[in-house]
Amino acid sequence: MAATHTLAGVGVTFANGKHMLSLFNGAGSGRVLRVYRAWMLNNQTAAVTGVLTTMALRKTSAQSGGTAISPVKHDSASASLVAQVLAAAGATVTNTADVQFRTWMWSNDEPAASTATNDEMECLIPLNCIFDATGDSNIEPITLRPGEGVTMQHSGTSAVGVADLFIEFTDAAT
Fold first, then answer.
1. Which of 37, 50, 137, 151 is placed for a possible disulfide with 109 were both Cys, Cβ 3.0 to 4.6 Å?
2. Is the pLDDT of residue 19 over 90?
């Protein structure tokens, strides 16, 4: 079985066009990463005046900088990721010319305990799974060969609030 990892960006701030959470399999890694699930949760804890904004799940061809994040191994006995695998919040990323895998609307206003608006629904894990390739054996995961990556990009312009983002993936030699 391939080693499974979760990449977690917790409390990532919004900014115009920001690559909120990105995973990149660098050239020469000799590895194949397979993305099985991605989530985005509205865990905004401070009062902000948010708006509806847009997000995109996209394939990438380059990545540098940002705030490095170490993915968490599901099994502590699994081998560590090779140095060419990059994971970051706020990285400088080159999107491919492909159409994005997903686009979605997102409210970056804070959730309230007493209402049932979109802000609150974004706190429920089953409702904010952005991509899931685990429930249908005919659906391939997003496969990242050397020189390929994936990003959860804020394609909108709102610059208020924070979000928690997660990418679950496997690492294998082939």
1. 50
2. yes
Average pLDDT, the chain: 90
Higher-scoring residue by pLDDT: 127, 104: 104
| Among candidate residues 38, 60, 37, 34, the one with its CA nearest the CA of residue 142 | 34
Query: Taking the model in full, what pTM does it have?
Result: 0.91
> What is the DSSP annotation of 66-129?
SEE-PPEESSTTSPPPPTTEEEEES-EEEE-SSPPSEEEEEE-SPP-TT--SHHHHTTSGGGGE
Tokens 């509205």, located at residue: 42
pLDDT mean over 89-109: 89
pLDDT at 101 over 80: yes
In a 10 Å sphere around its CB, with 0-12 CB exposed, 13-18 middle and 19+ buried, how is residue 29 labelled? buried
Handedness of CA 35, 40, 41, 45 (dihedral sign): positive
Q: Is 90 exposed, middle or buried (0-12, 13-18, 19+ CB in 10 A)?
A: middle
Cα–Cα distance for residue pair 138/141, rounded to 1 Å:
10
**What average pLDDT does this structure show over 72-79?**
96
If one counts every other C-beta atom within 10 angstroms of the C-beta of residue 143, the result is 16
| Contact indicator for 129, 38 with CB cutoff of 8 Å | yes
Pseudo-torsion of CA 144, 134, 130, 19, nearest 10°?
A: -20
